[in-house]
Amino acid sequence: MLIASWGFDGMTNQSQYKQKFDVDEEDRSDAGLLVTTVIQLQLRDVAKCVVWANQAPQSVRFCRPFRIQFLKESERTILAEKD
User: Fold this and answer.
1) Would you say 12 and 73 are in contact if contact means Cβ atoms under 8 Å apart?
2) How many structural domains compose the chain?
3) Does residue 55 sit within a domain?
């Protein structure tokens, strides 16, 4: 069994580079980026004994991007990503 943590972070007001998007939504542009990540915390066997434990859970070494979106970070987009 894998025990993991997930979360997301956004960056807004980045430089725009005339990138054309297929979807015409006001939140989609290359000025904003929303990244959803997963961090592995523990790996357990069927007897629930810890096989591996992450010694540095806040390190970027074990942080893996799950999804990268060109979205402006807002309350609406964060709640939609959480759902």
Assistant:
1) yes
2) 1
3) yes
